[in-house]
Each structure stands twice: as structure tokens, then as C-alpha cells.
Design brief:
alpha+beta, Peptide Deformylase, 196 residues, 4 helices, 9 strands, two-stranded parallel ribbon, 5-stranded antiparallel sheet
């Protein structure tokens, strides 16, 4: 089932999400719905706060990036095969020299800006069966994980922009919150009386 994606301005996007355990109701159904929602909106990642749930869970599927011909065959292959659900994640380390990448977000449609992030991360998380993993990632995979991880920490990519950029974007962000935007996926707008 495709769920509405929460738009910029909703308080749930600014909350630090809480951990869950294996008794969380219908977790497998929720995971299935979140993947369907992400694919329906042509996303490469989706975090639970983006569908209105302040829980520490997100998923990533970087396969759409695998077509980028500027990447090596090895990088393309890694991106093509990376699909994972992260529950109760904690980034343990971020290292390397920050690099810029043009990011967007399903909760902030039609806004893309360069965001600086470190290229390497070490992350501890549980999978959908609550098995614990500690893994290292770099490049675009690390970038997408960091973006989704920020969501469960109550941080949006626009929070990482300069105050000048934020001022330039203020009107567009207000319009998104009010639902004054054309999109081709279901959204829930905080400043509208009725939902789409």
C-alpha cells in the first residue's frame, strides 16, 4: 500500500525518532508499504518519519544510481545491488574530507541543493529480523544512508545549508508546507486543512 509522504513543515520531521523492538505491530507489513511508497515516488531512500512515524527505521535502494556512467564498473555494481532496511541505526563514525553532492528529498519536492558530508561511515543497525550488524560504507551508498539517518535524528538536508541559502529557499519551503506544489505521488501537507 502506498502511503502519503509527509511534507516539509510537519513536526514529525523534526523529532528524534525512538527505537523499536520485535514486538512492533505488523513490522513486515510496514516495511513492505514503505518500499512500495519509496518506489512509487521514485526515491532511493525513505525514513519512517517521512510517513509520519517517529521510529528509528529507514530503507535504502541505490540501484537508480547504477546507471551513472561517470562511475566505475565496480561502483555501478555496488549501487545496483544495494538494498537494505535499517532498524535502530546508530552511525558510529564518519570520516574523510567532506564532499558536496546535490541532494533532494521526497518530503521537500523540487528542491535540490549541494550538501557536504564525509565520504566514509561505520554504522550499527538491526535488520528486519533484529539481527545486529556493524558495517562500513563509502561514496554514494554512505551518502544516502547519512541522508536517511538524518531523518531519524530529526534533521533535514535543508538544515545543513548556509543561512543565506535557507533565506533564498524560504518561500519555496513555505509553499511546500502549504501544498502549493505539483507532485506525482501522495503527500500529506501540514498547513492544509484537507489531505491529498
Amino acid at each position: 500500500m502506498i502511503l502519503p509522504i509527509v511534507a516539509y513543515g510537519d513536526a514529525v520531521l523534526k523529532k528524534k525518532a525512538i527505537a523499536i523492538d520485535k514486538d512492533y505491530p505488523d513490522l513486515s507489513g510496514l516495511i513492505e508499504n514503505m518500499y512500495e511508497t519509496m518506489y512509487g515516488a521514485y526515491g532511493v531512500g525513505l525514513a519512517a518519519p517521512q510517513i509520519g512515524l517517529a521510529i528509528r527505521m529507514f530503507m535504502v535502494d541505490t540501484s537508480p544510481f547504477a546507471d551513472d556512467e561517470s562511475l566505475s564498473k565496480e561502483e555501478q555494481e555496488a549501487l545496483k545491488n544495494f538494498k537494505k532496511t535499517f532498524v535502530n541505526a546508530q552511525i558510529l563514525e564518519e570520516e574523510g574530507e567532506e564532499w558536496a553532492f546535490n541532494e533532494g528529498c521526497l518530503s521537500i519536492p523540487d528542491v535540490r541543493e549541494d550538501v557536504y558530508r564525509k565520504p566514509k561511515i561505520k554504522i550499527q543497525y538491526q535488520d528486519e529480523n533484529f539481527n545486529t550488524h556493524v558495517e562500513d560504507y563509502d561514496g554514494l551508498i554512505a551518502r544516502v544512508i547519512q541522508h536517511e539517518y538524518d531523518h531519524i535524528e530529526g534533521v533535514l538536508f535543508t538544515d545543513k545549508l548556509s543561512s543565506f541559502k535557507k533565506r533564498l529557499l524560504k518561500g519555496r519551503l513555505t509553499n511546500i508546507a502549504k501544498g502549493k506544489i505539483k507532485i506525482d505521488y501522495r503527500m500529506r501537507f501540514p498547513l492544509m486543512s484537507k489531505k491529498r
